[in-house]
Automatic annotation (TrEMBL):
InterPro entries: NAD(P)-bd_dom_sf, Sc_DH/Rdtase_CS, SDR_fam. This is Unannotated protein. Coiled coil: none annotated.
Length: 273
């Protein structure tokens, strides 16, 4: 098993969901963790959990739409722990997805908030995190994209566009700063039963189960190990990539679920003539 001993990690959106699961795992692997979230009460609760388990963590109230708060977040990590090695840009405002509609029905303010939270936030994290990392020899940045950013969505527009941008931002950072010791990758989770995922209507969750290669929908704890691996020195030759953690939903032909049902009703192979 790899270790994160001696490393300092910032996790935005760390109060719940994937961020919280990753904070707990990284702390258990030896990292000193800064949980940055607008939900300060949730962050403090996560810190208490980590400390009760013998780990080290700090809560810093952070709105990733505010550059001054991002700058303060990085400064707090460096002031408290002396360095920055890992940045997990994971925060998202999924409450605005309800207003993310077909392009002709887009409300401009909703679109701009989606871009600011989903794409500008990770960019600002990189902008202020990279200089701190370079001072101590480099580091690893992981940005949360989504399978929604890899393919067209039926009704949403802003969210998948922002997540597609996150995947490419990660490649840009990896190229621009790789020679200075910075690695940058994105993860693209499928449906995950985080607090936001749990709000999805049951019929929609059942669709994901039907199309996943595995017979279930993932938990935040299914995403965290890949993030921790990307943060560790075990992945030192891995950069500029977008890793899909999605139960296999993007790995099959799009009609796979329908095709499986079709074949199940046949008495002979479909192409047997």
């Amino acid at each position: 098993m790899f270790t994160l001993d001696g490393k300092v990690a910032i996790i935005t959106g760390g109060a719940s969901g994937i961020g919280a699961a990753t904070a707990r795992l990284m702390a258990s692997l030896g990292a000193q963790v800064v949980i940055a979230d607008v939900n300060q009460a949730g962050s403090i609760a996560r810190v208490a959990e980590i400390e009760a388990a013998g780990g080290t963590a700090l809560a810093v109230e952070t709105n990733v739409c505010d550059e001054a708060q991002i700058k303060h977040m990085v400064e707090m990590a460096v002031t408290t722990y002396g360095r920055l090695d890992i940045l997990f840009n994971n925060a998202a405002d999924l409450d605005i997805i309800g207003g993310d509609l077909d392009v002709t029905a887009q409300d401009l303010s909703n679109w701009e908030l989606t871009m600011r939270t989903g794409l500008t936030g990770p960019m600002l994290g990189c902008k202020h995190g990279i200089p701190a990392m370079v001072k101590t020899g480099g580091g690893s940045i992981i940005n949360t994209a989504s399978v929604s950013g890899l393919f067209a969505e039926v009704y949403m527009t802003g969210y998948p566009v922002a997540k597609a941008g996150v995947a490419h931002l990660s490649r840009q950072v990896a190229l621009q700063w790789g020679k200075q010791g910075i690695r940058c990758n994105a993860i693209a989770p499928g449906l995950t039963l985080s607090p936001a995922g749990l709000r999805m209507p049951e019929p929609m969750r059942e669709m994901y189960v039907r199309h996943n290669m595995v017979p279930f929908v993932g938990l935040p704890e299914d995403i965290a190990p890949t993030v921790a691996f990307l943060a560790s020195d075990m992945s030192r030759y891995l950069t500029g990539q977008c890793i899909q953690i999605d139960g296999g939903i993007t790995g099959a032909i799009p009609i796979a679920a329908d095709y499986r049902d079709f074949v199940a009703g046949l008495t002979a192979p479909p192409m047997s003539g």
